[in-house]
C-alpha cells in the first residue's frame, strides 16, 4: 500500500471511532479505540512510536512519541481539544520530519463532524 491508501484507511477508521464515541472524551480513549479499529481493518501501525532527536550529530535525551506511525509512511497525531492551534500543526510537521515521512494527519476528535477535525499535511523530506 502507498501513503495515500494508508491515509484513506486511517480516516475511515477515525470516522468509525468518532461515529461510535462522539466528541468530548480524552485523547487517550480515542487513541485506544483507533488502535483497535485499525487492527480490525488490518491497517499496519505502531502506537506511541518513539523518535529520537539528533542535534549536531548527537542523539539527545528528549525523544518524542508520535501517536501513530502507519505503514511506516504516515504520521498520525490525535487531539481532543477545543480548537487546533498553530503549535499543534507545527508538532505534526516536526514529527513528520523526525520520522522521515512525507504525509501526516492531525485529527481532532473534539468536533461535532469529524471531517472538520482532520488536517492533512504533505512535506518534502
How would you portray this structure in words?
The chain has 125 residues and is of the alpha+beta class. The chain has one domain (3-122). Helix content is 38%, strand content 33%. The protein is built from 3 helices and 5 strands; from the N terminus they run H-H-E-E-E-H-E-E. It has helices at residues 3-21, 27-40, 86-99, and strands at 45-55, 58-70, 74-79, 103-108, 118-122. It has a 5-stranded mixed β-sheet. Strand 3, helix 3 (86-99) and strand 4 form a beta-alpha-beta unit. It is globular. The model has no long low-confidence stretch (mean pLDDT 95).
Q: Which key features would you list for this structure?
A:
125 residues, alpha+beta, five-stranded mixed β-sheet, 3 helices, 5 strands
Topology:
Elements lengths: L2 H19 L5 H14 L4 E11 L2 E13 L3 E6 L6 H14 L3 E6 L9 E5 L3
Parallel strand pairs: 3-4
Antiparallel strand pairs: 1-2, 2-3, 4-5
Helix pairs in contact: 1-2
What would you say about this model in short?
With 125 residues, this protein is an alpha+beta fold.
What profile does the largest beta sheet have? 5 strands, mixed
Helix content: 25-40%
Q: What would the principal axes of the Cα set say about the shape?
A: globular
What is the mean pLDDT? Answer: 95
Number of separate domains: 1
What is the radius of gyration?
14 Å
Strand order of the largest sheet: 1-2-3-4-5
Question: pLDDT below 50 for ≥5 consecutive residues: which ranges?
Answer: none
The number of helical elements comes to 3
Which band does the percent of strand residues land in? 25-35%
Secondary-structure element order, N to C? HHEEEHEE
